[in-house]
Amino acid sequence: MVEASTRKRSLIPLVILVLVFALPPLASWVLYLNPQWLPAGRSNQGVLLEPPRSVDGLRLITPQGEQLAWADFNDKWTLVVIGRGECTGDCMERLFQVRQIRRALGGQRQRVERLLILLPQAGRPTPVIPSLEGHEGTRVGVVQLADVDGVEALFDVREQAPDHAIFVIDPQRMLMMVHDTDVMTSKQILKDLEKLLKASQNWVTGAR
Q1: Where are the domains of the chain?
Q2: How buried is residue 129: exposed, middle or buried, by Cβ count under 10 Å (0-12/13-18/19+)?
Q3: Tens place of pLDDT for every residue, the chain, 208 residues?
Q4: Fold category of 45-198 in CATH
Q5: Which pTM value belongs to this model?
Q6: Are 28 and 200 in contact (CB under 8 A)?
Q7: Exposure of 54 by Cβ count < 10 A (0-12 exposed, 13-18 middle, 19+ buried)?
């Protein structure tokens, strides 16, 4: 009986240590997913997608004909732009906006990736890859025809007006937020990213 009591007491410091390290990132994420619990003026600018959706099952093909490896996006926040047929006009403007937002993050920009997904368009079954000169580091994924329905369902493109949207995928490859660039400024999107980066800075690298 005494031995069991001693063993129980010896585990208490270990439990306290685990709680000290686990609670801050968990609390940050819970609060971010429940902005109504935060004081006024600190809620997110974008629209949270509830529940978040895993992108692991989504098959994208790169311009080189290779399957996009979602594992390459581990531990990074990813800003996604979706275009149809070819990326011109509004699509290129959103790519430029995403690049500027990432640059404005300063030293934190290395924790942010960018992804362009091009869907086929009526009369243009094969998407046209745009010249990304000046958009260094942008990843380009071209969706195979068989995956169009999957992309539209996952990103809710019929509901989210993808021609004006910037989507956010978290470091655990969960699609979790969308920003409507028709009603939101780059500064507002930047504020969201800054809060996300801060909330996730204690996440364990590679954790799922």
Answers
A1: 1-43, 45-198
A2: middle
A3: 545 555 555 666 666 665 555 555 565 556 555 554 544 444 567 888 888 999 998 888 877 778 888 888 888 999 999 887 777 788 888 988 998 999 999 999 999 998 888 887 766 656 666 665 555 555 555 555 447 778 878 887 555 567 789 999 999 899 999 999 988 999 999 999 999 998 887 764 544 4
A4: Glutaredoxin (3.40.30)
A5: 0.72
A6: yes
A7: middle
